[in-house]
Write a structure and sequence with these properties.
Layout: H1 8-29, E1 37-42, H2 46-56, E2 61-62, E3 65-67, H3 71-85, E4 90-92, H4 98-103, E5 110-113, H5 120-129, E6 133-136, H6 144-157, E7 161-163, H7 171-181, E8 188-196, H8 212-219, H9 227-236, E9 245-252, H10 257-266, H11 271-274, E10 283-289, E11 294-300, E12 311-315, E13 318-321, E14 325-328, H12 344-347, H13 350-359, H14 367-381, H15 389-407, E15 413-414
Parallel strand pairs: 1-2, 1-3, 1-5, 3-4, 5-6, 6-7, 8-11
Antiparallel strand pairs: 8-12, 9-10, 9-15, 10-11, 12-13, 13-14
Length: about 425
């Protein structure tokens, strides 16, 4: 072989090693006790309060302001900060836009947004315009206009934006990221991912009226929660950093499960049982990329079944399937799956090697710890995060674009390039 030539596996391994150097540095820097970082919080319901507690456990974090229109939520969060840090934050609760009054203050650096999902994009854009870095819960946006607004506002203001997609940080998924970057599976060309999780109980209030989650299922169609599934596989496939999503096709089953749930819970003659829900129970989306790779995305959040959140990455030298295990050509027994645990010691991600014990004390399999740690370090050092605004816009756009495809009879629709061509610079 000519010295100038290398195998695909050798290329992937060398490229992966270079990338992982940066990852190691991130892990080390994030543990340093550097200057304090001051973070405001918008939304401290159950989810926001959980994130607040984790964030307060990180070195150097101060929370001088909190906004929530629910006084009970605000008071609870204020007491948590006071108990941990000694000083209570100032609270803002005068209506749905009082967070804008909070943003006028200049004594904090960044904002964590943990409000109902339909509010994320507007609040994030307002945060960036106010000169603050932003960390937003998922999804980042609901419409194409909101996706573009986030990207353009981030570019115009020069502030940092991070989508708090904790599913990217789970132990096994970060290990697979390591394996992909080190070329274990060769050249990757196909992925599967899913969010199949019965959330029907979250659609209704006790009196039978709809929560915001229920209103979304009533009014919209398609994949309404795409980032948990797409996040990990997009990182494995270097989406927006060497490849990009170019088009999708979506199809959807009829809506049946949520009506059946309403009948069982509230009675067949109840108002909830008479509601018409537009969103079908199972949607399947096929996504093509610029490098002619394919991603299949499954979404079902109301069918009565155990959770089934699975991921697969297929390459020329092997495959990872969270439902079955790992197979590596020439290394695994012929045509037989091996347990993922066999490769954990060799390919454990540096984050989990160094801080796994701390992460395991937090939610979502430790993902909450690492996503918040990266968010804090983004704000502290004013640097681009692992999950940036283009990731947020790309993954979130699957929601309105899947709707468009379904309405056109499962026609192919274009996914815009939110990076403006920068994806070509891997």
């Amino acid at each position: 072989m000519n010295k100038a030539e290398i195998t695909r596996r050798e290329f992937c391994a060398s490229a992966g090693a270079a990338v992982m150097l940066g990852s190691h540095a991130l892990a080390e820097v994030s543990q340093e006790k550097t200057k304090p970082v001051r973070i405001g919080v918008i939304g401290v319901g159950g989810r926001g309060t959980g994130l607040l507690k984790v964030m307060l456990s990180l070195p150097g974090v101060e929370v001088p302001v909190i906004c929530d229109i629910n006084e009970a939520n605000l008071n609870r969060a204020t007491e948590i900060v006071k108990r941990i840090k000694g000083n209570p934050p100032e609270g803002f609760s005068k209506g749905p836009h009082d967070y804008r009054r909070m943003l006028q203050r200049d004594d904090f650096d960044a904002v964590l947004i943990a409000t109902p999902a339909p509010l994320h994009a507007e609040m994030a854009a307002d945060t960036l315009k106010a000169g603050k870095h932003c960390g937003s819960e998922v999804p980042g946006a609901y419409t194409m206009d909101e996706c573009w607004q986030l990207v353009k506002t981030k570019e115009q203001t020069g502030k940092r934006y991070m989508l708090l997609e904790n599913y990217c940080y789970a132990q096994q998924r970060m290990m697979v990221l390591n394996m992909v970057r080190k070329g274990v599976f060769g050249e990757t060309y196909y992925a599967e991912c899913s969010y199949i999780h019965d959330c029907s109980s979250l659609r209704f209030k006790p009196d039978g009226s709809l929560t915001w989650r229920g209103e979304v299922k009533r009014d919209l169609i398609g994949n309404l929660y795409p980032t948990h599934s797409l996040g990990p596989v997009s990182k494995w496939m270097n989406i927006n950093r060497g490849d990009r999503m170019t088009s999708l096709v979506s199809s959807m089953s009829k809506p049946a499960a949520l009506h059946a749930y309403a009948v069982k819970r509230f009675g067949k003659d109840s108002d909830p049982a008479r509601l018409k829900f537009r969103c079908g129970d199972m949607s399947v989306t096929l996504i093509k990329t610029a490098q002619d790779r394919l991603i299949t995305v499954y979404y079902d959040s109301d069918s009565p079944r155990p959770a089934s959140i699975f991921y697969l990455i297929q390459g020329t030298d092997g495959v990872y399937d969270s439902r079955s295990g790992v197979y590596i050509e020439g290394k695994s027994p012929a045509h037989r799956w091996e347990p993922v645990s066999k490769y954990q010691k060799e390919y454990e991600h540096e984050y989990w090697k160094t801080r796994g014990d701390a992460a395991n004390k937090t939610g979502h399999g430790g993902g909450d710890y690492f996503v918040l740690s990266d968010f804090v370090e983004m704000a502290r050092h004013d640097r681009e995060p692992f999950v940036d605004v283009c990731d947020s816009a790309t993954w979130s756009s699957v929601m309105p674009l899947s709707k468009k495809s379904i309405e056109k009879g499962s026609a192919s629709v274009e996914i815009p390039d939110f990076t403006g061509g920068k994806w070509k610079n891997a």
